[in-house]
Amino acid sequence: MAGMLLSVVLISSCGKAPKSLNSYSLAQVRTVLNSQVKCWSNGDIDGFMQGYEKSADVRFITQKGVKNNWKQILDGYKKGYPGKEAMGNLQFDLQEVRWLDSTAGISQVIGQWRVSPWDKPNDIHKGLFSLVFHGTSEGPKILVDCTW
Questions:
Q1: What is the DSSP string of 39-53?
Q2: CB contact at 8 A, 97 and 29
Q3: What is the pLDDT of residues 64-119, one digit of tens each?
Q4: Residues 6 or more apart from 146 whose CB is under 8 A from it?
Q5: What residues have CB less than 8 Å from 133, skipping those under 6 apart?
Q6: Phi, psi of 93 (to 5 degrees)
Q7: Strand partners, 97
Q8: pTM
Q9: Is the Cα torsion angle 62, 146, 43, 75 positive or negative in sign?
């Protein structure tokens, strides 16, 4: 009984229950995406990949198929983009950043990506994406990336 009372007193004295591991803000999601844009445009695929959950649970879905873990995604990017010149300048146009379940720490971003090659800045490649983020001890990370 005394232990339960102490727990109630501690929680009450803090004004609210402790945040869960899944807690993050939608502003933090935007920060992750801004960092990815900067890393990509600087030719830093390893930095870009820090936005993804580094596990076998992450999924990357495109017209070419599904990559089923972080390493497959990284290897695919490095094969397709062997250096900064091949990567070009990335831009994101975020159309929607929203909670799917704020209690569980799951959010979604819908937007458009654009890449302009460094040697042909008017040759713009573009497409759409839907990202599902979840909370980790390192903040929000992409768990599902559907890009086309």
A1: HHHTT-HHHHGGGB-
A2: yes
A3: 999 999 999 999 999 999 989 889 999 999 999 999 999 999 999 999 999 998 88
A4: 61, 62, 129, 130, 131
A5: 24, 29, 32, 106, 107, 108, 109, 140, 141, 142, 143
A6: -115, 100
A7: 109
A8: 0.84
A9: negative
